[in-house]
Amino acid sequence: MAKRDATERFLPLKPAAFHILLALADGPRHGYAIRTAVEELTRGGIKLWPATLYGSVRQLTNAGLIVPLEGEADPDDDARRRYYELTALGKRVLTAETERLRAIVDFAQGTRAVAKA
Amino acid sequence: MREAVDSWSVRLAARVYRLCIFALPGPLYDGFGQDMQDDFRAIARDAHDRRGGVAVLSALLRAVLDLFGRSLGERLQLSDVAAAKLPLGERMQLLFQELRQAGRSIMKRPGFSFVAVLTLALGIGANVAIFAVVNAVLIRPLPYSESERMVWIQHHAPGLSLPDLESGVGTVMLFQKFARSYSSMAAVVDAASNLTGTAEPARVQVLRVTPALFDVMRLKPIMGRRLTEADEVRGAPDVALLTYRGWQNHFGGSPSVLGQVVRLNDRPTTMVGVLPKEFQHPDWENELVVPMHFDPNEGFGAFGIGHIARLAPGATIETAQAEATRLISRLPELYPDITPEFLKKAGWSVSVSSFRDRLVGDAKTALWVVLGTVGFLLLVACASVANLFLVRAEGRQREIAVRFALGATGPRVAATFLSESMLLGISGGFWGLVLAYWSVRALVAASPPQLPRLSEINVDLRVALFAIGIGAVAGLVFGLMPLPMHLRRSLHGLVRAGRGFVGGRERNHVRKSLIVAQIALAVVLVTGSGLMLRSFANLRAVDPGIRTDGVLTLGISLGDEVSKPVAAARYQQIVDELNALPGVQHAAATNALPLNSSGINGGSFRIQSKPREEGALPPVAMYAIITDDYLPSIGTRLVQGRAIERADHEQNRAVALVNQTFARLHLGGNAVGERLAFGEDSLTWIEVVGVVEDVRTFGLSEDVRALAYLPMTTHVPGARIGIMTAVIRTTGDPAALIGAARAAVKRAAPAAPITSARTMQQVMDRSLADTAFTMTIILIAALVALLLGAIGLYGVIGYVVSQRTQEIGVRIALGAIPAQVRTLVLRQGLVLAAGGVAIGLVAAVSLSRVLESLLFQVETRDPLVFALVPLTMLSVTALASYLPARRASNVSPLQALRSE
Question: Among A9, A70, B284, B363, which has the minimal tally of Cβ within 10 Å of its Cβ?
Fold first, then answer.
């Protein structure tokens, strides 16, 4: 029950936060890579401009959903960049949010207006 | 290390973004400022690579909006992880509501809105107008394909007193033979010819070119054919192409012009083509283009040929320059007379520069200075509008508090402010555009006729976007500036709306800084205009060596084809006719009108009493051809000896006059009686009979050079009298004489075209035009800046006084005398002003250096200007703070307490 509360507190996630978590689901990325990943995933629909991106990153870090990686960097890339990865809590929140969204999608697809493809 | 190769738009955007980042609250800035900058640069780069400079601008706008929005959210401590969100439709509705409310709110304060929009419109309008000029003249490429690869080759021989020398047959040959940096090169010469066989005989400017010019400029005729090498061959039938202007002027734009035969300098010439409208150059205002018969055997010396080339693939201006410098040392291979010693003595060098730079020439510095000036003006305007917004925000504290109390969220309140300020900013941009549209026309009319590419200036879409863009950004910044302070305060001490928010200290701090900045900017502008004013005054104070009042000048062209004795006789007839006109005191003619030396010749000469030493460079002088009555006509004095007399011609005496500089430089002061020969092998020795006061032949700002005056009848090799200018001194208004003078010329020489009719005063004004233009713009900008600065200071001090009314009342009640109160307030104003003046002076000292090349006989740190500017500024600001000070000292204690 306590665990459930820990995730519920964050739901529903803001789109920016959700997409950042999603972008990190496959492994650590740095800020700019998060931006490009989100842009790609949403086919250009969501662009995380720097202030929003790092504002969210800071809050997600403070909330304990993601953590910056210490000292590990892709050798091909700029050593200055910091990489972030999901924490266990972050993974659970992402899963919970996805569940929540799935429930909504399932419901929507059951209605007459939104026929299942 | 990609930073170096980023385009300027990316670099500029990155810089702007970096400045904006300071708006972020501390933790976010400290933790992520660098990351954000790096990311933004990557974003801008990406935008640039994909869709060019406009995309960078749009990315910048969105990133800055994001930045400010975020910084607001952070300050309001909104959560970004989780939050409920309004659906899109509802948000649109809200936005619309905000805009409507913003419009209403703007209408409710017509005074404030009017002043804000007007100030912005002034600043933006001035910038847009000047930007339109700069865009047309300096930024937009020439209308030729790959025009940036077109270069101009020029020579310099300071050792021969020829700092700038167009190319000559010899140097062109040299390049044609050895240069590898060019895919094509051409020679051009500008000349005038008589055009007959058309509706009306005319004197036309003709550009003689080698056919390769069509390759260099990638020029395609809009009708007919280009010139080919076959046209260049000596003995080929004479053909010509018309420029667009020539086609309109002489053939009314008729399409049947091809194949028509006209007479050019009396030779039948067939029209074979018409050039496009874009073929237009400031010093090639030609109507006809004809093939040049380039004679490689002509020898080294024939200079005055324009040398234009197109860089070969892979070559750059730098590599071409390096090659050209190497080539010069190979001149002796082609011309054995040219020894390495001669080249060394002459200080011979060559420069390869972009064709556009050469077209734009001196106008470049002046234009950038003017653009910088109006840029400063815009900053001043923004500072004063920012101040207005701060003042108004004060008045709305209570409204905000109430809105919060009624449950409005921070972003919604912020949105209200933003939509208002954006609306104001955009309308400022709009009216600025309108203003610019009108002033561009005025500018084009007022700019010096020498300004290149004048005809290309207009307000296009890019310029319009620039205006609206500035307006929007300005509005955004003004709207956001007071926000953080507002909202933070409003959140904390919310409905303590009793006395408003007393803690105005922070805001006053911002306002005071703005005032200091405004005054500093005004100081820079006033200093600049002071320097330009002094320059202008110095120019006006230059003694031209002539008396301009009552003098009319007429350019008369007989053409170079008429033999010299015939031309001389004809000009003498014209002068005699003019002399006979009623009201004419003296009339004469010259080929070198003072202040406007287009027709002047020059060359080396020998002095009989001082044979030249072996190997020494020959002395060089200019010579002007004159008729007898020239000195009294132009109003210059004979300082020694006698003038040229009729008896000299009758007895075939070869005589000359020299100017004071000539006498001093070449004849050791004792000129009268010396004998000179012009040209290297001339056997005619000419006796100097008099010395004439120095006259500014080349323009007021140019140094006087050695000049000899020769009568028209004396034969000097190379002296041309194809175009002479009649100089007519009258007792009355010279302009009123134009009609009669034209008729007199027509009686004496019916076929001779009159090329110009101007009073000498107009000639003089024209030589002042460049300086006058720059000065006027800086002066206007400085006055506006001064006014805005003074109003701003008045506003701030007035506000401080109104805030302290109660305190002042108490002081007076306790026995303070009005003079003390006045001093108190006045001192506050003067402290601010002094701060601004000090900062402004420091900035002016370093910035005035850019004016250097535009100044005439004024140091960039002219002590007079730097003494007067602070005095002026302090007096104006003293006045601006005296008015509120007087009001303060009139406060009655009773009133003060009641205002509580």
Answer: A70
- The single residue listed with the structure tokens 């104070």 is B541
Query: Which of helix, strand or coil describes residue B304?
Result: strand
CA–CA distance, B310 with B307 (Å, rounded to integer): 11
Which positions in chain B touch A77 (Cβ < 8 Å)?
Answer: none
Quick one: which H or E segment has residue B274?
Answer: strand B267-274
Write the CA distances from A84 to A23, A67, B638, integer angstroms.
10, 5, 90
B813 vs B250: CA distance, rounded Å: 87
Cα–Cα distance measured from residue A38 to residue B507, given in angstroms and rounded to the nearest whole number = 41
pLDDT reported for residue B502:
41
> CA angle, B217 as apex, B211 and B219 as ends, to 5°?
75
Is 70 exceeded by the pLDDT of residue B482? no
Q: B62, A31: Cβ pair inside 8 Å?
A: no
* Mutation target among B16, B80, B86 for the A interface, most CBs of A within 10 A: B80
CA distance B49 to B51: 6
User: Which residue of chain B is at minimal alpha-carbon distance from A78?
Assistant: B38
Pairing of strands B261-264, B288-291: unpaired
ipTM, two decimals: 0.85
* Share of chain A residues as helix, strand and coil, in percent rounded to the nearest 5: 55, 10, 40
Facing residues of B548 across strands? none
- Across the interface, of B42, B71, B73, the residue whose CB is closest to A32 is B42
> What average pLDDT is seen over chain B?
80
Helix or strand holding residue B190 (H, E): strand B182-196
pLDDT tens for B287-335 read 899 998 777 776 666 677 889 999 999 889 899 999 999 988 888 888 7
Query: Is residue B714 helix, strand or coil?
Result: coil
How many CB atoms are closer than 10 A to CB B68?
23
Cβ contact, residue pair B27, A81, below 8 Å: no
B contact test, residue of A8, A11, A14, A60 with most B CBs within 10 A: A14
| H or E stretch at B517 | helix B505-541
Top residue of A19, A32, A82 to mutate, by most chain B CBs within 10 Å, is A32
How buried is residue B577: exposed, middle or buried, by Cβ count under 10 Å (0-12/13-18/19+)? buried
| CA B33 to chain CA centroid, nearest Å | 40
Interchain contact, A49 vs B67, CB within 8 Å: yes
Biggest CA–CA distance in chain A, Å, is: 53
Dihedral of the CA atoms B191, B193, B198, B199 (nearest 10)? 100
CB B525 within 8 A of CB B782: yes
Chain A positions in Cβ-Cβ contact with residue B74 (cut-off 8 Å): 55
Say if residues B592 and B545 touch (Cβ distance below 8 Å): no
The DSSP-derived string for B767-790 is HHHHHHHHHHHHHHHHHHHHHHHH
B720 Cα distance to chain centroid: 34
Over range B332-359, report the average pLDDT: 81
pTM passes above 0.90: no
One-letter amino acid at B754 equals I
C-alpha distance from residue B247 to each of B128, B286, B806 (Å): 34, 11, 79
> What is the rounded average pLDDT of the residues B146-166?
80
Residue B453: count of CB within 10 angstroms of its CB: 20
* Contact (Cβ atoms closer than 8 angstroms) between residue A68 and residue A46: no
Residues 6+ apart with CB under 8 A from B47: B55, B56, B58, B59
Contact at CB, B80 and A16, closer than 8 angstroms: yes
User: How large is the C-alpha radius of gyration of chain A?
Assistant: 16
Residue B870 to residues B523, B528, B831, Cα–Cα distance (Å): 8, 13, 13
The token pair that represents B772 in the structure block: 């006058």
Round to whole Å and give the CA distance between A24 and A30. Answer: 9
